[in-house]
């Protein structure tokens, strides 16, 4: 069973993209696409799962579509995860397999303008040879826009409108202050190819909502669209001030939707970024996190309302998921771990897909093994978009699986973050954490990764390790991509 499953998935995800371009006639009318990606949202942080969280818009998507319980992203933190979902290729194949960011602000350091311009966070970016979703959809007549977090390079040649998007308003790096739009004191908001501080002081979720609604008003009745909304909520604020940085910023009206907190801040002498410091309490941080999610949800609701008013909602593919596991005030239960880790809590994320005109079941739960690598090939199928024959993808068409016509052909998935490793083959997952924790786990009956089977199943562990090594060799043999590969 184990070996045949491996062979099947190698055939499906290793074949060239040419196979995906055949028979793309699933819809006579091209669907619109609304892709919503939250930032650091926990696995259990949906109103349909968690009575302590208010998310009517996300619940609405779940009622009109299918919620995935077994959905993974390609990395346990933001930058490589976003490279994987936009390219349909493992980060190790597309070249963005680590963070494009600076480390000095982690220790309270504020860059001087000229100094910042020469740092990797400023000059690094996704290889220009990589093809992302909007560039493909251009061939099928799609208008496209992104409003929110880009995180794949800030030089003009790397920005969204240089990669296939028609319009961009958002920030370019891993995180910002929600009101100043600065990353540790550095202005980070852009409109298309130019930096802007025009909206400084306005909560950024409202800005991304504003631009999305304007885009939907601009798109003609006949033209299909791809709207990408990568919110930064509920990521913690990237500010230098400990009291702000130690929590998530959220508007007061959304904070008031949750129970009051007795103690908002507390002094500490064990703060990571300098001592002594005044930091947000855990209770306040959880409240702020939930308020940021609910504010984001309200903006999502307005976008859905606009589509409904325009009569476009039923033929819009709405996809929502988090870029990686939750952190801070998040609830990843019943998963072990959190963002930045290879446990399930770092890489398995909430995901909902709705498309009434595409026969996606309504108010259903799908437990099939699926990932963000499936996004690009599946959207190509749905839109009748051909994919270059020489483009190697690591995902497949998920529509038959979502329509309950077939089981998922995916049987394996691999992750590498510096010295951290994870490999899932079938129901079994091997984990190596940099803190010397890890083991072999059967996710079918041990979703929380508590029972290490390494000693009782040594041959199975060896087989999975060998499969991981073959995957690693395949990634290293792939045509090299920057910014990290040496070639």
TrEMBL record:
Similarity comment: family membership: Belongs to the sulfatase family.
Pfam families xrefs: Sulfatase (PF00884)
Keyword list, A-Z: Hydrolase, Signal
EC number(s) from the headed UniProt entry: 3.1.6.1
Molecular-function annotations in GO: arylsulfatase activity
Record protein name field: Arylsulfatase
Stored PANTHER family: ARYLSULFATASE FAMILY MEMBER, ENDO-4-O-SULFATASE
Species this chain originates from: Rubinisphaera italica
Listed InterPro entries: Alkaline_phosphatase_core_sf (IPR017850), Sulfatase (IPR050738), Sulfatase_N (IPR000917)
Gene name of the encoded protein: atsA_43
Span of domain Sulfatase N-terminal: 31-384
Signal sequence region: 1-21
Taxonomic lineage from the root: Bacteria, Pseudomonadati, Planctomycetota, Planctomycetia, Planctomycetales
Class of the enzyme per the UniProt entry, highest EC level: hydrolase
């Amino acid at each position: 069973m184990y070996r045949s499953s491996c062979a099947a998935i190698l055939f499906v995800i290793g074949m060239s993209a040419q196979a995906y371009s055949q028979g793309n006639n699933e819809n006579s009318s091209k669907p619109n696409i609304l892709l919503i990606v939250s930032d650091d949202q926990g696995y259990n942080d949906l109103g349909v799962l968690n009575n302590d969280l208010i998310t009517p818009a996300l619940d609405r998507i779940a009622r009109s579509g299918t919620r995935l319980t077994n959905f993974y992203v390609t990395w346990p933190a933001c930058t490589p995860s976003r490279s994987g979902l936009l390219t349909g290729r493992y980060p190790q194949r597309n070249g963005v397999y680590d963070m494009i960011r600076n480390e000095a602000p982690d220790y309270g350091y504020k860059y001087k303008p000229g100094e910042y311009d020469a740092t990797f966070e400023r000059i690094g970016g996704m290889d220009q040879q990589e093809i992302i979703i909007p560039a493909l959809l251009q061939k099928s007549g799609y208008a496209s826009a992104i409003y929110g977090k880009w995180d794949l390079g800030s030089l003009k040649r790397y920005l969204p409108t240089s990669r296939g998007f028609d319009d961009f308003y958002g920030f370019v790096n891993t995180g910002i202050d929600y009101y100043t739009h600065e990353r540790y004191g550095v202005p980070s908001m852009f409109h298309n190819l130019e930096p802007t501080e025009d909206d400084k002081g306005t909560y950024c979720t409202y800005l991304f909502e504003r631009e999305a609604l304007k885009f939907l008003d601009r798109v003609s009745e006949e033209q299909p669209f791809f709207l990408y909304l990568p919110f930064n909520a509920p990521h913690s604020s990237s500010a230098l001030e400990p009291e702000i940085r130690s929590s998530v910023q959220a508007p007061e009206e959304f904070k008031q939707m949750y129970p009051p907190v007795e103690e908002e801040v507390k002094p500490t002498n064990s703060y990571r970024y300098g001592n002594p410091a005044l930091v947000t309490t855990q209770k306040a941080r959880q409240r702020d996190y939930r308020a940021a999610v609910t504010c984001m949800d309200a903006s999502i609701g307005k976008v859905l309302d606009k589509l409904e008013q325009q009569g476009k909602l039923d033929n819009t593919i709405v996809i929502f998921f988090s870029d990686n596991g939750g952190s801070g005030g998040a609830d990843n239960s019943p998963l072990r771990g959190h963002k930045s880790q290879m446990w399930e809590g770092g890489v398995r994320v909430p995901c909902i897909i709705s498309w009434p005109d595409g026969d996606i079941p309504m108010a259903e739960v799908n437990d099939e093994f699926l990932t963000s690598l499936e996004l690009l090939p599946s959207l190509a199928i749905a839109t009748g978009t051909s994919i270059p024959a020489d483009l190697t993808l690591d995902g497949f068409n998920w529509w038959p699986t979502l329509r309950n016509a077939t089981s998922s052909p995916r049987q394996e998935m691999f992750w590498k973050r510096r010295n951290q490793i994870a490999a899932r083959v079938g129901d079994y997952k091997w984990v190596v954490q940099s803190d010397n924790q890890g083991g072999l786990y059967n996710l079918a009956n041990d979703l929380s990764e508590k029972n290490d089977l390494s000693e009782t199943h040594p041959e199975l562990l060896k087989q999975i390790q060998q499969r991981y090594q073959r995957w690693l060799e395949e990634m290293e043999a792939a045509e090299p991509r920057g910014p990290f590969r040496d070639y």
